[in-house]
Specification:
Largest sheet: 4 strands, antiparallel
Number of strands: 4
Shape: flat
Order of helices and strands: HHHEHEEHEHH
Strand content: 5-15%
Structural class: alpha+beta
Number of helices: 7
Strand order of the largest sheet: 2-3-1-4
Helix content: 40-55%
Length: 224
């Protein structure tokens, strides 16, 4: 069976091509950059071989399709987001609706949460601002939040693949577990409303009103 460091070296070479943005045509350029990627990726993978098993495990082969789909969907969203942000930059008069969305997660491991958070930040137009460990919620800023459901659908797709890649307890397609204090998924944080009385009415509860205070002061002056 092929040694795992060789597989990782090949994956690093493919990643090199994506980072460099090498076009498919002409093929000579693709081959040249591919050789450079192998020259960089294989030594790095070999040097780090002790951090993982020597052989490609059954789990690696099992999660490979999910990992490939994750990368494919991320690259698709990367392209779409780049075009959307470029449109905003080239047309500054366009109305935009920046907002922050609370996104409760299904993944629980640090690696899975970090992967999704970084994917959001690497996508132009969105930024992972904060993470609430108690409610397992990401707070995501969007430069133009036309529909929170669309943003949530993209993150849920990545999360489905991450559930399989990182061997999470939940399975792709499972709903978000109900947690005490969690925010509704996909709802802009700025849309939260306060239940009950207004802030002005709460400020006077349990204390004297301005008129009561005035009367008390008059009473104090007449006594004695």
């Amino acid at each position: 069976m092929m040694r795992r460091w060789l597989v990782n070296g090949l994956l690093l070479a493919v990643l090199w091509l994506f980072v460099r943005g090498v076009p498919v045509s002409p093929p000579v350029r693709l081959v040249e950059e591919g050789l450079i990627g192998l020259g960089v990726g294989l030594p790095v993978a070999y040097g780090l071989r002790r951090f993982y098993g020597e052989q490609v495990t059954e789990r690696t082969l099992r999660v490979a399709p999910a990992a490939a789909l994750y990368v494919a969907t991320f690259l698709k969203e990367l392209l779409v987001a780049n075009l959307a942000v470029a449109r905003i930059v080239l047309s500054p008069s366009l109305p935009i609706r920046p907002d922050v969305v609370a996104v409760p997660l299904r993944v629980r491991s640090d690696a899975a949460i970090t992967t999704i958070a970084n994917s959001i930040t690497l996508t132009p137009g969105t930024l992972t601002m904060d993470y609430d460990a108690e409610t397992n919620t990401l707070y995501v800023h969007s430069i133009d939040l036309e529909d929170a459901a669309d943003l949530l659908d993209t993150i849920r797709t990545w999360e489905d693949y991450a559930l399989a890649i990182f061997d999470e307890d939940l399975k792709p397609g499972d709903p978000v577990p109900e947690r005490e204090g969690a925010t509704d998924g996909g709802r802009p944080v700025g849309d939260d409303t306060t239940d009950g009385e207004s802030a002005d009415s709460r400020a006077t509860d349990g204390g004297a009103t301005p008129d009561d205070s005035h009367d008390a002061a008059d009473g104090g002056e007449t006594d004695g």
